[in-house]
Predict the structure.
Amino acid sequence: MKAIWNDTVIAESGQTVIVEGNHYFPAASLKTEYFRKSDTHTTCHWKGEASYYDVVVNGKVNNDAAWYYPDPSDAAKEIKGHVAFWKGVQVIN
């Protein structure tokens, strides 16, 4: 699977985990030069507290376009160490 934004591959992995229709990429598969920590946090009733990254490619910023659960609940433990995308980031096979 590939995550693409602004015509650039920002993550690539053959080992994503699918939860609620979202592909969660292993953190090691991210091209870290395109990610910047965000101060945003949200809470999912069953996964726990999510943290976010801004995606920055060629001077363009996609705020909070990637999220992850640093300490997911036991029910979502398979996504620990994984990152998912939205806000226009294409995830393709």
Remarks:
- The two ends are 4 Å apart (CA to CA).
- The beta strands are 2-5, 8-12, 17-19, 22-26, 35-44, 48-57, 60-68, 82-85, 90-92.
- The first strand starts at residue 2 and ends at 5.
- The mean pLDDT is 98.
